Batch of 2 targets.
Target 1
Amino acid sequence: MKAAPEAQKRLLDLAELDSVLDRLAHRRRNLPELAEIDEKSKQYARLATQVIEAETEAGDLAREQSKAEHDVEAVRTRADRDQKRLDSGAVTSPRDLASLQSEIASLHRRQGDLEEVVLEIMERREAADTKVTDLVAQRDEVRAALTAAEDRRDASLQEIEKEAGEVRGRRAAVAAEIAADLLGLYDKLKDQYGIGAAMLHGGRCQGCKVALSIAEMNRIKAAPHDEVLRCDECRRILVRTSESGL
Ligand SMILES: [Zn+2]
């Protein structure tokens, strides 16, 4: 392939801009916020599940308490009714009286037992409610940290994108100056090797840093200026400039 030396030198400008774009892409992929967001997202998911579990437990206990309170109320109502019957004097048979009194006593004991149950549930419910409050606070704290990390990530991405946009603009301007066949070769090599062109400097290809043999240097010295050379080692386009020492 033939191309004017000036056009070949423009490939080095293109390679420089492409390496800036590569560095920006690398920064974009390796933002410290990405790992933080990943970790916080997992923490958040775990806490959200724990909150639901704790809320379910607290809800179950609230229902259990209201059922136990209802039981207490039913026993108290029955005891009150028996007491009224006793107080009314309607029951006169000593055997019925004894039976009624024994039932009232038994109902009072039962009421006492059920009230104990209510108290025990209330204690468990208080602990469950505290657990819900703690977990909700932890979950919200992680959510806030996650949102902050996401905001920082977005700000960084925006900054990188702005810079990349400027570099892409400059790259397009340089690429427009290069003939289609040379640019096509450069782009193909860039896709294959990461960098499409490198300068010959100090007897070395600056792409792979391999020193060229004397025979290779002689071949290059003898080559016409407009011939597009390739590095034998890395296959990149080898660009000769005034700094190449030829
Ligand atoms: Zn090379």
Target 2
Amino acid sequence: MAAVLLLPIEVSDAGWLSDIFKGSQKPGKSAKQATAPKPATVAKRVTPAKRVALAKPSPKHRHVKLAALGPVALPPSALKPAAPTCDPAKFRIVVDVGHTAESGGARSARNVDEFLFNHRLARRIEQKLKADGFTETRLLLTEGKARRSLVRRVDAANNLQANLFLSIHHDSVPDKFLEEWEFEGKKRGYSDRFSGYSVFVSRRNPDFRTSLAFAELIGKEMKAFGLPYAEQYSQPIMGRHRHPLLNKETGVYSYDELVVLRKTRMPAVLLEAGSIINRDEELKMDSRERQDIISSGVTAAVKQFCDRRWAILGPL
Ligand SMILES: [Zn+2]
């Protein structure tokens, strides 16, 4: 773990996600590290050449020679793969609560720690997944200061040998966008300029392609609920917080240096569920209704992901 501990990690005073979770290494040949998923098992087609090979009689079975040389008349159903099904009871998802009680991440427009939003939503997701049969789901709560908590959460996920890692966060803005308002008699920072969810993956995750597949599923579910994604991350105005938008339909960005995405040894995705520095969206994120929508969307995405995973790798 020394390698992880030695990684320089920028930590801003604001505690905003984009700084807290970033290592300082530049993206390199990260894409080459990506492990391409194995193609899904499909029915093996019998080519003409194979038919001949198959028809080649063994010394013991010369009597089948003539019959075997004819076309292979298999029923169509024989060419289809057995319908793969996921076994939720064995599929382990780690739902990571972003930040800690001690280092609460961003502050909302009404001065509430991001950690509290993350904890509540992650718990809802955990409950929903378990209720839908994903009984191996683990809520990951870490303690301590931001930097050390990164190592702990990555270690925990790796030790649990999770099949999937999902980190839950709520978004804010760089300080330069902050404006001032008064809430409950005190001046607070806010920005109504941006809103929406966003999904992040790292091209340096050992299984980037599968991470991306899961991120896409989450983005599609969010979109299906009519939720817009945060478009500002692809814009020059974000400066060093700008990130490549991998899919302009689903709001999936790459954020290669996020420690929890690149050091986890399983597909990993980070969801910024919505902006809590936006005064209106903070209220929505605080509502049971929005938490239910997002947890339902995540659960639906996990189900689809699990099915695909099963199809590719077989029983876990
Ligand atoms: Zn965060």
